[in-house]
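FIELD: query
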Amino acid sequence: TGHSLLPTLAPETDAIVILVGDVYEAAQKTLAVLRNEGLRIAVDSSGRKLDAQIKAAVKSGILYVIFLGEHELATQRFKLKDLRLGEEKELGLERLVSKLAARHRPASEL
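FIELD: result
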């Protein structure tokens, strides 16, 4: 096989969940649903300011952030931020899963 000087690598993490407030325990069910759908989800439970958490996600090459707080858990509507485009959408859990799952493509197609 030929050697490529610049390999194309797909990000290993589909999205990072940023916990807003003290919701770690309450968020476990939602996180389990996302992971059971085959999504690779990281969680930032550092408690740092949102800006710092978002900057860390960008630096690590993560494309999406899901904000998860008491309001999102109560309404089952989740804010998904596309870090490439800077766009933020509010989606139900099923739509959130399908949007992230649609991103499972070979890196050469991105």
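FIELD: remark
The chain is about 35% helix and 25% strand.
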